[in-house]
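Fig. S4 source data, part A: sequence.
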Amino acid sequence: MIVILGATGTIGSALVKRLANLGVPARALSREPEKLCHQLGNWGGSTIEVATADASDPESMRRAFTGASQLFLAMSNSPRQIELETSIIHMAAEAGIEHIVKISSPAYDPSVPVAVAGWHQKIEMVLSESGLTHTVLRPYAFMQNLQRLAPNVVNQEVFYGCMGDAACNFIDCRDIADVAVEALTNREAAGHVYTLTGAEVFSYPQIADKLSTLLGKPIRYMNMDPEVLRRDLMEFGHMPPWLAAHVVEIQAMSVALPEKPTDTVKRLLGREPRALDAFLREHIDMFRQSNGSSRIVLS
């Protein structure tokens, strides 16, 4: 039995669907199980169990681990990240979980510090000290987060950032989920650290050009001073200070440390990762009409 913590997230929901298609028994956790059942629809199948659990409620987590041997651990970034994930790792070990697949972040680099990456680094250390078999997935920017640009593109025909012409690694969350499935179902793939990207890197100006072509109208990328961007994210994007700082930090990292793709997805899955062009075509309707507020940038 595989316990899935983060089943309602972009990666977790894709993982549940893949495991259901494969007929692999899994227990998908949510604080709102009815909502999760509705989200899964017909994808749940006979092998997926939905259970009520909350990462901040130890008793609910202990119940969720009953009879399970593996844990998929994916939590939204938050200032409580280290506290919550560390607690979950300890409870999983006590409950007899043998293997944890953790969604992490690109490796922390002290020359260009990203606070959230530092949190994940500390959690990875806890995993290493736990004695459990663990697989760490370190994905770069999610293609799905590009959908957050839609309100700006629709309302202003522009989106914002502070990366200039720097290239950025993007990966489709469905590819991350597919790698997680491989680690959870293939013993030889478990127990490693994988850095995950798509097959190509792209700058924001290049993405603006791609959107312009697909939409048949000019879409601009506007580069901003990092501090101005941080303030805008809080004012217009209603982001908490820590998250606004994180967006600026990861964009600064892309500028300072040139990014390049890895071949990890292809090596593990035997196919090329999903392409950004295909992803934008698949979701282009979002960029034609949106009810969201403006002045949001991706995180």
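Fig. S4 source data, part B ends here. The mean pLDDT is 90.
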